Amino acid sequence: MGNEQKIIDRIISDAENQASEIIKSAKEYADSVIKKAEEKASKEMDKYKDLAKAEAEKVMAKEISGAEMSAKKMILAKKQEILEETINLAKEKLFALSGEEYENTILKMIDNAKEKGEIILSAEDRKAFGEKIAGKGYNVSSETRELGKGFVIKNGDIEYNYSFDSIMTVERESIEQKIAQILFG
């Protein structure tokens, strides 16, 4: 879990820095839009003086409200973009694991799996470290699958898919929530 946590911490740190810059830029834009809206409203008030004072205040409130809404939408869109980029970066780094780091990650995942049963690996993984897994007392299947990265635990007719693709798909919402909480607290 240590290497995974370091990767995740590094990704989160990079994303936090990027998020801060994007949010700062969006806030500056929002301030300029609000300032323009206030200037427009002020001109309306000068033009119509007392007769149009109430109308100008409505226009000002509407412009400011619209500018604030526009700024909020921009910030939300940027946050969503940052979330997507962070998830994609995490996925890239996870799928880029290789050698001993990948092997250790798979071994830890098997150790931590709640489900027990026959371990099905890709042909490449079975060849690379299937014996090591079997040596730890796990039942490594002679069956192999095209899983990409990860494994399947088969218990009778029930299969538990621990491929990286499956985990990222199933846990995406939870991952997004955790990243959003960390980045945007």
TrEMBL record:
Name of the protein: V-type proton ATPase subunit E
Name of the gene encoding the protein in the UniProt record: atpE
GO biological process, one term: proton motive force-driven plasma membrane ATP synthesis
The keyword Ligase is assigned to this record: no
Originating organism: Candidatus Fimicola merdigallinarum
One of the record's GO molecular function terms: ATP binding
Function: Produces ATP from ADP in the presence of a proton gradient across the membrane.
SUPFAM superfamilies per UniProt: F1F0 ATP synthase subunit B, membrane domain, V-type ATPase subunit E-like
Keyword annotations: ATP synthesis, Hydrogen ion transport, Ion transport, Transport
HAMAP family listed in its UniProt record: ATP_synth_E_arch
Presence of the UniProt keyword Transcription regulation in the record: no
Entry-linked Gene3D superfamilies: ATP synthase, E subunit, C-terminal, F1F0 ATP synthase subunit B, membrane domain
Family to which this protein belongs: Belongs to the V-ATPase E subunit family.
One GO location term (cellular component): proton-transporting two-sector ATPase complex, catalytic domain
